[in-house]
Write a structure and sequence with these properties.
The complex is a heterodimer of chains A (about 120) and B (about 290).
Chain A (H helix, E strand, L loop, with lengths): L10 H14 L12 H8 L3 H13 L3 E4 L3 E4 L3 H27 L4 H10 L1
Antiparallel strand pairs in A: 1-2
Helix pairs in contact in A: 1-3, 2-3
Chain B lengths: L1 E11 L2 E12 L3 E5 L6 H8 L7 E6 L2 E2 L4 H4 L2 E4 L15 H11 L5 H10 L13 H14 L4 E5 L7 H18 L2 E5 L3 H5 L4 E6 L2 E7 H7 E7 H7 L4 E8 L2 E7 L12 E4 L3 H9 L6
Parallel strand pairs in B: 3-8, 3-9, 6-7, 7-8
Antiparallel strand pairs in B: 1-2, 1-4, 4-5, 9-10, 11-13, 11-14, 12-13
Helix pairs in contact in B: 3-5, 4-5
Classes of the chains: A mainly alpha (about 120), B alpha/beta (about 290).
Protein backbone atom coordinates (compact mmCIF):
# COMPACT_ATOMS: atom_id res chain seq x y z
CA UNK A 1 0.00 0.00 0.00
CA UNK A 2 2.72 2.43 -0.90
CA UNK A 3 1.46 3.65 -4.24
CA UNK A 4 0.36 7.25 -4.74
CA UNK A 5 -3.23 8.10 -5.56
CA UNK A 6 -3.92 9.71 -8.92
CA UNK A 7 -6.76 11.95 -10.00
CA UNK A 8 -7.71 10.01 -13.08
CA UNK A 9 -9.70 7.30 -11.33
CA UNK A 10 -12.11 6.90 -8.41
CA UNK A 11 -10.25 6.78 -5.12
CA UNK A 12 -12.12 3.70 -3.92
CA UNK A 13 -11.24 1.81 -7.11
CA UNK A 14 -7.60 2.73 -6.58
CA UNK A 15 -7.76 1.49 -2.99
CA UNK A 16 -9.21 -1.88 -4.06
CA UNK A 17 -6.68 -2.22 -6.89
CA UNK A 18 -3.78 -1.42 -4.56
CA UNK A 19 -4.90 -4.13 -2.15
CA UNK A 20 -5.21 -6.55 -5.08
CA UNK A 21 -1.74 -5.66 -6.35
CA UNK A 22 -0.30 -6.18 -2.86
CA UNK A 23 -1.91 -9.62 -2.79
CA UNK A 24 -0.51 -10.44 -6.26
CA UNK A 25 2.98 -9.36 -5.24
CA UNK A 26 2.90 -11.30 -1.99
CA UNK A 27 2.99 -8.19 0.16
CA UNK A 28 -0.32 -9.30 1.66
CA UNK A 29 -0.64 -13.05 2.14
CA UNK A 30 -3.79 -15.17 2.17
CA UNK A 31 -5.46 -15.40 5.59
CA UNK A 32 -3.57 -12.29 6.64
CA UNK A 33 -5.27 -9.16 7.98
CA UNK A 34 -5.43 -6.10 5.70
CA UNK A 35 -5.22 -2.51 6.97
CA UNK A 36 -8.46 -1.18 8.49
CA UNK A 37 -10.47 1.53 6.77
CA UNK A 38 -9.32 4.01 9.42
CA UNK A 39 -5.69 3.08 8.78
CA UNK A 40 -6.20 3.46 5.03
CA UNK A 41 -7.99 6.77 5.60
CA UNK A 42 -5.09 8.07 7.65
CA UNK A 43 -2.44 6.76 5.26
CA UNK A 44 -3.96 8.38 2.18
CA UNK A 45 -5.79 11.29 3.87
CA UNK A 46 -9.13 10.15 2.51
CA UNK A 47 -12.58 9.79 4.03
CA UNK A 48 -12.97 6.44 5.84
CA UNK A 49 -16.24 5.84 3.97
CA UNK A 50 -14.34 6.01 0.67
CA UNK A 51 -11.69 3.59 1.94
CA UNK A 52 -14.52 1.34 3.15
CA UNK A 53 -16.14 1.40 -0.27
CA UNK A 54 -12.90 0.15 -1.84
CA UNK A 55 -12.53 -2.62 0.73
CA UNK A 56 -16.17 -3.64 0.35
CA UNK A 57 -15.75 -4.11 -3.41
CA UNK A 58 -13.22 -6.83 -2.60
CA UNK A 59 -15.47 -8.36 0.03
CA UNK A 60 -18.25 -8.61 -2.55
CA UNK A 61 -15.88 -10.39 -4.91
CA UNK A 62 -14.81 -12.83 -2.20
CA UNK A 63 -11.20 -11.59 -2.27
CA UNK A 64 -11.42 -10.30 1.31
CA UNK A 65 -13.62 -11.55 4.12
CA UNK A 66 -14.67 -10.09 7.43
CA UNK A 67 -13.92 -11.56 10.82
CA UNK A 68 -16.41 -10.02 13.20
CA UNK A 69 -14.85 -7.66 15.69
CA UNK A 70 -11.35 -8.17 14.29
CA UNK A 71 -11.20 -6.84 10.75
CA UNK A 72 -10.74 -7.77 7.11
CA UNK A 73 -8.66 -10.71 5.94
CA UNK A 74 -7.38 -11.99 2.59
CA UNK A 75 -9.47 -14.99 1.55
CA UNK A 76 -7.94 -18.32 0.64
CA UNK A 77 -7.60 -18.49 -3.14
CA UNK A 78 -7.66 -14.68 -3.42
CA UNK A 79 -4.45 -14.51 -5.44
CA UNK A 80 -5.75 -17.00 -8.00
CA UNK A 81 -9.07 -15.13 -8.22
CA UNK A 82 -7.33 -11.78 -8.85
CA UNK A 83 -5.08 -13.31 -11.52
CA UNK A 84 -8.11 -14.78 -13.25
CA UNK A 85 -10.00 -11.50 -13.11
CA UNK A 86 -7.08 -9.41 -14.35
CA UNK A 87 -6.36 -11.85 -17.20
CA UNK A 88 -9.99 -11.64 -18.19
CA UNK A 89 -9.93 -7.82 -18.29
CA UNK A 90 -6.48 -7.67 -19.92
CA UNK A 91 -7.94 -7.61 -23.42
CA UNK A 92 -10.23 -4.70 -22.64
CA UNK A 93 -7.86 -2.64 -20.48
CA UNK A 94 -4.57 -3.22 -22.31
CA UNK A 95 -5.04 -4.86 -25.70
CA UNK A 96 -7.93 -2.76 -27.01
CA UNK A 97 -6.21 0.63 -26.46
CA UNK A 98 -3.01 -0.79 -27.99
CA UNK A 99 -4.84 -1.92 -31.12
CA UNK A 100 -6.69 1.41 -31.36
CA UNK A 101 -3.44 3.41 -31.15
CA UNK A 102 -1.73 1.08 -33.64
CA UNK A 103 -4.58 1.51 -36.07
CA UNK A 104 -4.54 5.31 -35.92
CA UNK A 105 -0.76 5.24 -36.47
CA UNK A 106 -1.15 2.92 -39.44
CA UNK A 107 0.77 0.03 -37.83
CA UNK A 108 -0.43 -3.23 -39.39
CA UNK A 109 -1.25 -6.35 -37.38
CA UNK A 110 1.81 -8.07 -38.89
CA UNK A 111 4.10 -5.22 -37.84
CA UNK A 112 2.60 -5.30 -34.37
CA UNK A 113 3.13 -9.04 -34.02
CA UNK A 114 6.70 -8.64 -35.21
CA UNK A 115 7.26 -5.97 -32.56
CA UNK A 116 5.94 -8.25 -29.83
CA UNK A 117 8.17 -11.12 -31.04
CA UNK A 118 11.24 -8.89 -30.86
CA UNK A 119 10.59 -7.95 -27.25
CA UNK B 1 -28.63 13.39 16.04
CA UNK B 2 -29.72 15.52 13.10
CA UNK B 3 -29.33 19.23 12.37
CA UNK B 4 -31.94 20.51 9.99
CA UNK B 5 -32.99 23.78 8.44
CA UNK B 6 -36.16 24.41 6.53
CA UNK B 7 -36.90 27.27 4.17
CA UNK B 8 -34.07 29.26 5.73
CA UNK B 9 -33.72 32.88 4.60
CA UNK B 10 -31.34 35.66 5.53
CA UNK B 11 -32.06 38.95 3.82
CA UNK B 12 -30.03 42.12 4.00
CA UNK B 13 -32.41 44.63 2.46
CA UNK B 14 -33.24 43.23 -0.95
CA UNK B 15 -30.24 40.91 -1.03
CA UNK B 16 -31.00 37.31 -0.06
CA UNK B 17 -27.65 36.08 1.28
CA UNK B 18 -29.33 32.78 2.11
CA UNK B 19 -32.27 32.12 -0.13
CA UNK B 20 -34.82 29.50 0.99
CA UNK B 21 -32.46 26.68 1.92
CA UNK B 22 -33.56 23.24 3.10
CA UNK B 23 -30.74 21.12 4.43
CA UNK B 24 -30.30 18.11 6.69
CA UNK B 25 -26.94 17.35 8.29
CA UNK B 26 -26.57 13.84 9.64
CA UNK B 27 -24.31 12.77 12.43
CA UNK B 28 -21.01 11.10 11.60
CA UNK B 29 -20.20 12.68 8.26
CA UNK B 30 -17.65 15.15 6.93
CA UNK B 31 -19.37 17.71 4.74
CA UNK B 32 -17.70 20.20 2.45
CA UNK B 33 -19.44 23.51 1.87
CA UNK B 34 -18.34 25.08 -1.38
CA UNK B 35 -19.42 28.12 -3.33
CA UNK B 36 -17.93 31.19 -4.90
CA UNK B 37 -17.19 34.35 -2.93
CA UNK B 38 -20.47 35.85 -1.77
CA UNK B 39 -22.45 32.62 -2.35
CA UNK B 40 -23.63 32.72 1.28
CA UNK B 41 -21.39 30.10 2.91
CA UNK B 42 -20.46 32.04 6.04
CA UNK B 43 -23.98 33.38 6.45
CA UNK B 44 -25.41 29.87 6.24
CA UNK B 45 -22.92 28.56 8.80
CA UNK B 46 -23.73 31.41 11.21
CA UNK B 47 -27.47 30.74 10.83
CA UNK B 48 -27.08 27.00 11.40
CA UNK B 49 -25.24 27.67 14.65
CA UNK B 50 -27.63 30.42 15.81
CA UNK B 51 -24.95 33.11 15.79
CA UNK B 52 -27.12 35.17 13.51
CA UNK B 53 -30.94 35.42 13.50
CA UNK B 54 -32.69 34.15 10.37
CA UNK B 55 -35.09 36.40 8.47
CA UNK B 56 -37.36 33.41 7.96
CA UNK B 57 -37.25 29.66 8.40
CA UNK B 58 -35.95 27.57 11.24
CA UNK B 59 -32.92 25.57 12.33
CA UNK B 60 -33.53 22.59 14.58
CA UNK B 61 -31.50 19.90 16.28
CA UNK B 62 -33.50 16.68 16.56
CA UNK B 63 -36.67 18.72 16.11
CA UNK B 64 -35.84 21.32 18.81
CA UNK B 65 -35.30 24.89 17.61
CA UNK B 66 -31.68 25.90 18.06
CA UNK B 67 -32.21 29.65 18.54
CA UNK B 68 -31.51 30.70 22.16
CA UNK B 69 -31.62 27.03 23.13
CA UNK B 70 -28.68 26.44 25.45
CA UNK B 71 -29.07 22.67 25.40
CA UNK B 72 -29.00 22.45 21.61
CA UNK B 73 -26.18 24.98 21.31
CA UNK B 74 -23.98 22.82 23.55
CA UNK B 75 -23.79 20.41 20.59
CA UNK B 76 -22.76 23.04 18.05
CA UNK B 77 -19.50 24.85 17.36
CA UNK B 78 -18.88 27.44 14.69
CA UNK B 79 -15.21 28.30 14.60
CA UNK B 80 -15.28 31.29 12.30
CA UNK B 81 -12.41 33.13 10.70
CA UNK B 82 -10.98 35.51 13.29
CA UNK B 83 -11.69 39.12 12.51
CA UNK B 84 -9.02 41.17 14.26
CA UNK B 85 -10.05 44.56 12.87
CA UNK B 86 -10.06 47.29 15.59
CA UNK B 87 -13.88 47.39 15.84
CA UNK B 88 -14.09 43.84 17.17
CA UNK B 89 -11.53 44.42 19.91
CA UNK B 90 -10.48 40.79 19.38
CA UNK B 91 -6.96 41.70 18.25
CA UNK B 92 -5.89 42.78 21.74
CA UNK B 93 -6.59 39.35 23.22
CA UNK B 94 -3.67 37.02 23.71
CA UNK B 95 -3.94 33.54 22.14
CA UNK B 96 -4.24 31.90 25.56
CA UNK B 97 -6.95 34.37 26.59
CA UNK B 98 -8.95 33.59 23.47
CA UNK B 99 -8.61 29.84 24.08
CA UNK B 100 -9.65 30.37 27.70
CA UNK B 101 -12.83 32.14 26.56
CA UNK B 102 -13.53 29.26 24.17
CA UNK B 103 -13.00 26.76 26.99
CA UNK B 104 -15.73 28.50 29.01
CA UNK B 105 -18.07 28.89 26.05
CA UNK B 106 -17.95 25.26 24.88
CA UNK B 107 -19.24 22.89 27.59
CA UNK B 108 -17.44 19.80 26.23
CA UNK B 109 -14.09 21.58 25.82
CA UNK B 110 -11.04 19.28 25.84
CA UNK B 111 -8.25 21.29 27.41
CA UNK B 112 -5.61 18.58 27.04
CA UNK B 113 -6.29 18.41 23.32
CA UNK B 114 -6.11 22.20 22.97
CA UNK B 115 -2.71 22.25 24.71
CA UNK B 116 -1.44 19.40 22.55
CA UNK B 117 -2.47 21.21 19.36
CA UNK B 118 -0.94 24.50 20.53
CA UNK B 119 2.35 22.63 20.87
CA UNK B 120 1.96 20.78 17.60
CA UNK B 121 1.37 24.04 15.72
CA UNK B 122 4.01 25.84 17.84
CA UNK B 123 1.58 28.68 18.49
CA UNK B 124 2.96 31.58 20.56
CA UNK B 125 0.22 31.66 23.23
CA UNK B 126 1.44 34.87 24.83
CA UNK B 127 1.16 36.87 21.63
CA UNK B 128 -1.82 39.05 20.87
CA UNK B 129 -4.08 37.86 18.06
CA UNK B 130 -3.30 40.98 16.03
CA UNK B 131 0.37 39.98 16.01
CA UNK B 132 -0.38 36.59 14.43
CA UNK B 133 -0.02 35.79 10.73
CA UNK B 134 -3.07 34.69 8.72
CA UNK B 135 -1.93 31.10 8.94
CA UNK B 136 -1.51 31.26 12.71
CA UNK B 137 -5.00 32.74 13.08
CA UNK B 138 -6.31 29.76 11.09
CA UNK B 139 -4.51 27.44 13.51
CA UNK B 140 -6.33 29.11 16.42
CA UNK B 141 -9.70 28.52 14.76
CA UNK B 142 -8.75 24.88 14.07
CA UNK B 143 -7.81 24.33 17.71
CA UNK B 144 -11.10 25.84 18.90
CA UNK B 145 -13.05 23.65 16.47
CA UNK B 146 -11.34 20.38 17.39
CA UNK B 147 -11.12 20.99 21.15
CA UNK B 148 -14.77 22.12 21.35
CA UNK B 149 -15.74 18.43 20.99
CA UNK B 150 -19.11 19.63 19.70
CA UNK B 151 -21.14 17.00 17.87
CA UNK B 152 -21.66 19.36 14.95
CA UNK B 153 -18.56 21.42 14.25
CA UNK B 154 -18.41 24.04 11.53
CA UNK B 155 -15.15 25.41 10.17
CA UNK B 156 -15.12 28.44 7.92
CA UNK B 157 -12.07 28.45 5.65
CA UNK B 158 -9.89 26.59 8.17
CA UNK B 159 -6.95 26.25 5.80
CA UNK B 160 -6.81 29.89 4.64
CA UNK B 161 -3.24 31.13 4.87
CA UNK B 162 -1.83 27.74 5.91
CA UNK B 163 1.14 26.36 3.99
CA UNK B 164 0.75 23.07 2.16
CA UNK B 165 2.32 20.99 4.94
CA UNK B 166 0.07 22.54 7.59
CA UNK B 167 -2.99 21.98 5.39
CA UNK B 168 -2.12 18.30 5.07
CA UNK B 169 -1.57 18.19 8.83
CA UNK B 170 -5.01 19.71 9.40
CA UNK B 171 -6.79 17.14 7.22
CA UNK B 172 -4.95 14.30 8.96
CA UNK B 173 -5.93 15.70 12.39
CA UNK B 174 -9.50 16.07 11.21
CA UNK B 175 -9.65 12.45 9.99
CA UNK B 176 -8.09 11.21 13.20
CA UNK B 177 -10.65 13.05 15.34
CA UNK B 178 -13.46 11.97 13.03
CA UNK B 179 -12.42 8.29 13.13
CA UNK B 180 -12.12 8.39 16.90
CA UNK B 181 -15.39 10.17 17.68
CA UNK B 182 -17.76 10.17 14.70
CA UNK B 183 -18.41 13.88 15.15
CA UNK B 184 -19.93 15.74 12.21
CA UNK B 185 -17.75 18.33 10.53
CA UNK B 186 -18.78 20.93 7.99
CA UNK B 187 -15.87 22.64 6.29
CA UNK B 188 -16.03 25.53 3.89
CA UNK B 189 -13.07 25.91 1.60
CA UNK B 190 -11.92 27.36 -1.70
CA UNK B 191 -9.11 24.82 -2.02
CA UNK B 192 -11.50 22.14 -3.22
CA UNK B 193 -8.98 19.73 -4.68
CA UNK B 194 -7.22 19.14 -1.38
CA UNK B 195 -10.44 18.68 0.55
CA UNK B 196 -12.20 16.46 -1.99
CA UNK B 197 -10.82 13.11 -0.81
CA UNK B 198 -11.54 13.91 2.84
CA UNK B 199 -15.19 14.80 2.31
CA UNK B 200 -18.05 12.34 2.29
CA UNK B 201 -20.70 14.80 1.13
CA UNK B 202 -20.49 18.09 -0.73
CA UNK B 203 -22.91 20.99 -0.34
CA UNK B 204 -22.76 23.48 -3.20
CA UNK B 205 -24.18 26.99 -2.82
CA UNK B 206 -24.76 29.39 -5.68
CA UNK B 207 -26.10 32.92 -5.17
CA UNK B 208 -27.55 32.07 -1.75
CA UNK B 209 -29.35 28.99 -3.06
CA UNK B 210 -28.59 25.35 -2.45
CA UNK B 211 -27.45 23.93 -5.78
CA UNK B 212 -26.88 20.37 -4.56
CA UNK B 213 -25.93 18.12 -1.69
CA UNK B 214 -24.39 14.93 -2.96
CA UNK B 215 -22.12 12.09 -1.94
CA UNK B 216 -18.69 13.08 -3.31
CA UNK B 217 -17.84 9.66 -4.76
CA UNK B 218 -21.27 9.36 -6.41
CA UNK B 219 -20.89 12.83 -7.91
CA UNK B 220 -17.42 11.99 -9.25
CA UNK B 221 -18.72 8.69 -10.66
CA UNK B 222 -21.53 10.51 -12.48
CA UNK B 223 -19.45 13.29 -14.05
CA UNK B 224 -17.72 13.03 -17.44
CA UNK B 225 -15.89 15.47 -19.64
CA UNK B 226 -16.71 14.75 -23.27
CA UNK B 227 -14.67 16.37 -26.03
CA UNK B 228 -14.09 16.07 -29.75
CA UNK B 229 -15.55 17.38 -32.98
CA UNK B 230 -18.64 19.48 -32.24
CA UNK B 231 -21.17 17.27 -34.09
CA UNK B 232 -19.79 14.09 -32.54
CA UNK B 233 -19.90 15.58 -29.03
CA UNK B 234 -23.45 16.83 -29.52
CA UNK B 235 -24.56 13.39 -30.68
CA UNK B 236 -22.71 11.60 -27.86
CA UNK B 237 -24.35 13.64 -25.09
CA UNK B 238 -27.85 13.98 -26.56
CA UNK B 239 -30.47 13.66 -23.82
CA UNK B 240 -27.92 14.03 -21.01
CA UNK B 241 -27.57 16.80 -18.39
CA UNK B 242 -24.96 19.07 -19.98
CA UNK B 243 -23.04 21.87 -18.26
CA UNK B 244 -20.43 24.39 -19.24
CA UNK B 245 -20.03 23.83 -22.98
CA UNK B 246 -16.82 25.29 -24.40
CA UNK B 247 -16.00 25.53 -28.09
CA UNK B 248 -12.80 26.18 -29.96
CA UNK B 249 -12.91 26.06 -33.73
CA UNK B 250 -14.47 22.72 -34.73
CA UNK B 251 -13.92 21.19 -31.31
CA UNK B 252 -16.14 21.24 -28.28
CA UNK B 253 -15.94 20.08 -24.69
CA UNK B 254 -18.85 19.62 -22.28
CA UNK B 255 -19.33 18.41 -18.74
CA UNK B 256 -22.16 15.92 -18.27
CA UNK B 257 -23.72 14.59 -15.09
CA UNK B 258 -25.05 11.10 -15.73
CA UNK B 259 -28.13 9.84 -13.96
CA UNK B 260 -28.25 6.16 -12.95
CA UNK B 261 -28.48 4.01 -16.06
CA UNK B 262 -27.28 6.77 -18.40
CA UNK B 263 -24.05 6.65 -20.40
CA UNK B 264 -22.20 8.67 -23.00
CA UNK B 265 -22.93 7.27 -26.49
CA UNK B 266 -19.90 5.05 -27.06
CA UNK B 267 -20.09 4.61 -30.81
CA UNK B 268 -19.18 8.30 -31.31
CA UNK B 269 -15.60 9.41 -31.91
CA UNK B 270 -15.16 11.41 -28.70
CA UNK B 271 -12.83 11.42 -25.72
CA UNK B 272 -14.53 10.73 -22.39
CA UNK B 273 -12.63 11.65 -19.22
CA UNK B 274 -13.35 11.69 -15.50
CA UNK B 275 -13.47 15.05 -13.70
CA UNK B 276 -12.19 16.27 -10.36
CA UNK B 277 -14.54 17.83 -7.82
CA UNK B 278 -12.99 21.22 -8.51
CA UNK B 279 -13.65 20.95 -12.23
CA UNK B 280 -17.23 19.82 -11.61
CA UNK B 281 -17.67 22.84 -9.34
CA UNK B 282 -16.33 25.22 -12.00
CA UNK B 283 -18.63 23.62 -14.59
CA UNK B 284 -21.64 24.12 -12.29
CA UNK B 285 -20.80 27.53 -10.85
CA UNK B 286 -18.52 29.16 -13.43
CA UNK B 287 -19.76 31.72 -15.89
CA UNK B 288 -21.25 30.21 -19.02
CA UNK B 289 -19.19 30.86 -22.11
CA UNK B 290 -20.00 34.19 -23.72
CA UNK B 291 -21.71 33.76 -27.08
Amino acid sequence: MKEQLTESKSIYLQISEMIETDILRGILLEEEQVPSTNELARLYTINPATAGKGVNLLVEEGILYKKRGIGMFVAAGAREAILKKRRKSFEETHLAPLLREAESLGITREELIAMIREK
Amino acid sequence: MKLQCTDLVKAYGTLHAVDHIDLTLEQGKIYGLIGRNGAGKTTLLSLLTAQNPATAGEVSLDGEPVWENREALAHLCFSRELNISPETGLGNLKVKEYLRIASIYYPHWDDAMAKELVELFRLPVKKKLQKLSKGMLSMVTIIVALASKADFTFLDEPVAGLDVVARDQFYKLLLEEYSATGRTFVISTHIIEEAADVLEEVIILRDGKLLMTENVQDLLDSARYVSGKTEEVDAAVRGLEVHHAESMGRSKGVTVLLKPGQAVEESRDVTVQPLSLQKIFVALCGEEERA
